[in-house]
Amino acid sequence: MRRDSIFYKLFQQSPTLLFELLTERPINADSYRFDSVAVKEPKFEIDGVFLPPENEGAGVVYFCEVQFQKDEQLYERVFAESSLYFYRNRARYSDWQAVIIYPSRSIEQSDIHPHRGFLNSNQVHRVYLDELGDIRQLPLWVGLMVLTTVEEELAPQAAKYLLERSSVEQPKTANDAIIELVTTIMVYKFEQLSRREVEQMLGITLKETRVYREIKEEGREEGREEGREEGREAEARSLILRQLTRRVGELPQQVRERTETLCLEQLENLGEALLDFTSMADLQAWLEALEA
To answer: DSSP labels for 2-13?
Structure first.
């Protein structure tokens, strides 16, 4: 499961989610914005950085690392990244804290002794998702994080619960985002199922997903008629090609021709995958994987 991209979307939608995991949240938590940064010389990629509002003077910067695979040098890297970034931006921030999110304690680095000073302080916070409690007792957005760790046999019921709760508690825009996130999590969790099968499992219709909402909206603007499978496929292909061009640049003729041969289900999957693309190589790798 590509959990990095899922948590990136979660934090984008709700930057205050990070602070729901902490015992003490900053007073101005609602004013923080989420970003990802690269620190050069040497180059480090930091999963997530939560930046305090710039109009309130030097504030506390929060670093976040989502770790679902064992890494025996995780803390060496995280503390090096955090310290270097803080050093280069010392004038902007008064302090720093780090939050490391694990699915369970078993994934944590084994040898933590060299980092006991940080880990035993209130500057570094370790969160174990499987210890947060019953998904029904958690804040909705925290429940989405925990859904990534739920066993397959329990996941459909938990996902349906979150969808039902979201439809009651959230405004339409936020509810649409949650529908998309829940569907994406379940597609990654049930890799043997198609996106359509996952949607059927959750009781979600195709017209409720992001790609089809955009198609419908653009179709209305352009006066196109909806309702037929052929029409939806043509419009999906047109939309995906425009999104790909904005994401990775002008498509080579060979790549465009290959994309135009995709069926409706493959287009829907590509519509989700392209959110993680950063270059033409990502698109080409995705297309090659279809033929593997």
So the answer is: -HHHHHHHHHHH
